[in-house]
Design a protein that fits this description.
Keywords: Signal. It holds the Pfam family Peptidase_M30. This is Hemagglutinin. This protein is α+β, with helices and mostly antiparallel strands. It has a domain at about 160-450: Orthogonal Bundle (Neutral Protease, domain 2). Helix content is about 25%, strand content about 20%. The protein is built from ten helices and 19 strands. The protein has helices at about 130-150, 225-235, 240-245, 320-345, 355-365, 370, 375-390, 410-435, 440-450, 455-470, and strands spanning about 5, 35, 40-45, 45, 55-60, 65-85, 90, 115-120, 125, 130, 180-185, 190-200, 205-210, 265-270, 280, 305-310, 515, 520-540, 540-550. Helix 2 (about 225-235) crosses helix 4 and helix 8 packs across helix 9. The protein is elongated, with a radius of gyration of 26 Å.
Amino acid sequence: MQSPKFKRLTWLLAAVGIAGCSGDDSAPVSTVTPACTDCGALAPTLYAGRGTGVWAYTNASDQPVTVPVAIGTLPGNDVTLVFSNDSGQPLSQPQSEPVSPTAAQPSPASAQVPQMAMNRVAVAYAGVSTADRIRAFNTRGFIERLERLKARKGAPPMAADTLDGGSRLPSVIDSQPGAERPWYTDDGEPRDTSLRRQTTTRDGVVVNVWLEDSAYGPGQVTDAMLDAIATIYARRDGIHDFLVDIGGPMWGPHTESDLIAPDRQPVNIVLLRLAEEGTAGYFLAANAFVNEPGTETSTSNEAVAVFLNTATLSGDRPDGMRTTIQTLVHESLHMQNFYRRPVRLGADYALADWLDEGSAVMVQDYATHILGDGYNEVRDYRLPQYLTTPMYGCSVTVWPKAGDACDGYGVWGAWGGFLNRQLGMPFFRKLLNDSTHTASEQVLDAAIRAVRPESGMVPELRRWAASVGALVPAAAVPGGYGYPARTDADYPLPAIDLQTQVATRKLPAELQGKLAPYAMAPVVRRQVKGTYRESVTVPPRTTLSVVIHDGKV
């Protein structure tokens, strides 16, 4: 689910041990080892003087470890220390060590953090945001409802089973252009709509575009907009073809009698005036239930459907159509994930919210080839959002709730964009089509190992942390680091040079509290000449990466 909102996120940065110094002629001793090949890390204590070098130390114990770091022949480079939490538990941040009397103090990082667009639903419903409520239903509520319906079969009706409101709706199957039909919003409000466009995909799936009657016309949603949406979704190599190619059908065979029929279901794109203008769209699994008036399914739309906000298209928004198409791709993947895993494979296979949302953010990265206008969601929005807010310290396996300092869309844009470029479409196909694992961490780890057998979620997290924490230059970037271009057949991805983010990247000014599970945090030492020397406290189950390059940080 997507919606922009503004939020301020401010961190303050603490010293981590003894600052780097120059002019020290004593023999360097270091416990970090090179973590790249054919790179600037020539030895545990030696930098090549140019290029990018990465050194690492992993504390696999349950106690903090003080690690001496000494790397020589620096001509005045910035040194970045990156801490990545390798575990699923929050960990205490690194503590300060006594400062050497001969050491130069590290330059203070900027604490000025601008407001940054956040992508979450702002409307609260009974104390919970619309986005959080829908996300909770899609990941847990659907399964709980299905279990309740199964338990009640054959039991006499109870007063508690009867709910007010809702009624059977005209079937979307065999609907014809011009047909009129109410659609329930996520909070059960019916809206009058008309079927404005109908087309068929290459594999024979009917695509219906419904529009709320009051949102049609000049200055609102026009015929040209409706044509564009129908065309880009259903055309050859459009959104539908792309998603089916990489992840299978949107709906099909299943064994659940409480859900809509498995065959002849059209894909419905429903454009409504949603209550909150910031809500770009949503997919709600509740619409897959058979509508039984007077029960908890009485506001099911009985349809395979995604919902888009007409406010995104109305007015003078120059990016309105692009945002709508990106949202359509994102929400369609939610719809596909829902059918492919909990419906087809079973309730135990439902993705955790962080991977369901994360995969939908990742697929937007690939939508560049569909839009055809050169825009890339990760390069042009999500990665800058992550670095500028900043979102260091945010977990990749916890999806934030509305009002939290972290924003999952920015985190997964940065992290997922890295995985896409490092591992490509073979990895993403494996991620989507896994039918072996039920735990989402295992799904992600297995997809990575399918492409890099020697790797996994944690090793890739370390390399991503080093890349994005130190803004490694694209020029001569070591293998396994950075955001290189992908040239996979049909689904290319543009390279991203992290040096383009130097001017706007904000560093946290203090590492406070605990480092979240599977999260990272960087600390920078400025303009070190000669030997960089520091004793660094590495928390339990944490990897320290030391990154030196000849770009800017």
